[in-house]
Amino acid sequence: MSATERLQTYVQIFAACLLTLLGARRVFGQTDEIRCEVHTEQNLWNRNTETVITGTIVNLTDGPLQLEVHPSLYLSSRTSSELRARFWAPVDLLHDSPIATKRQKVGKVGETIEPIPVRLQFTGKDDAINFKVDARHLRWAREISSVWPDSSFFGTVTPNEYDIQLVLETPNGRTECPALKIRVEVTPTDGFARPSPQLYELYSWPGASGIWNFCLLPSPSGVNIRAETIFNKKFRIAGIDQLERGLSLLPTGARVIWLPRLTAGQTPTKESSKLALPSLETVEKVKSYAHQLGIEVEIPSSTPD
């Protein structure tokens, strides 16, 4: 790879990381090309109600208009200013689906993600495009998350009162639709509320090419996950980015026990001898990220029985 190609790759990685870390909110001024309005008939959202937004985008220019936009829905808590109480989902308004993306591998584990803009076409002044979007058809993430949204609505958004807003980013600026007030309740489909598991076990061990592997699983009856489960490929998490994604899916208030070895009383295996903690810098980074999500990560001084 030439020096120019390497520079282009680094620029792409930096741009993709910045886009994600900012929740895809590009910094532009307001545009006067279009305006939008959104509505919802149901302000209480749970698994047994509709989670639908309808809206209209209107051409404000004096003639035909073709415009490429990057639409996103944003949820901002009305009761908390903390970053972990903010969520977002990039959306294809014309197809009621997550926005399409172009993905490119970088190295062995890296990846750049570029959203593909939605093309709006208006025939003349005051021409309008109507749309309908179901929040459950989209992929969501916390704005603070360092990964591209890839989780379900009720698997990500915590119960709270929110302002929900549609933002349309264009090459010439942005259009912010007036926000709506909604309340989210995470109620199971059978109507009976059940608490989410609050205790989780986290294990780590070095893998190939310096990439650390992790296993993060609920432990509702105490610290007792066995070696064959820890090293089951079905539960393996590769790399810090994927671990942070896993942490972002846990309920606020969860407690994670990070263990560098099997619990006492378990028979050691060849694989269990690999268990260890990564560098102190990595450990502190993970703990800091979890803390921002309202999750406590503990590393016991001795292995629990």
Polypeptide structure, described:
With 305 residues, this protein is of the alpha+beta class. It has two domains: 3-184, Jelly Rolls, CATH 2.60.120; 199-298, no CATH class. The chain is built from five helices and 19 strands. It has helices spanning 3-21, 153-156, 227-230, 240-248, 280-292; strands spanning 34-39, 44-45, 52-59, 65-77, 86-92, 97-98, 101-106, 110-115, 118-122, 128-134, 141-142, 160-170, 173-176, 180-184, 199-206, 212-218, 236-238, 255-259, 296-298. Helix 4 packs parallel to helix 5 (280-292). The protein is elongated, with a radius of gyration of 22 Å. It starts with a helix and ends in a 7-residue tail after the last strand. Mean pLDDT is 83; it is low at 1-28 and 188-194.
Please outline what is shown here.
This protein has 305 residues and is of the alpha+beta class. The chain has helices at 3-21, 153-156, 227-230, 240-248, 280-292; strands spanning 34-39, 44-45, 52-59, 65-77, 86-92, 97-98, 101-106, 110-115, 118-122, 128-134, 141-142, 160-170, 173-176, 180-184, 199-206, 212-218, 236-238, 255-259, 296-298.
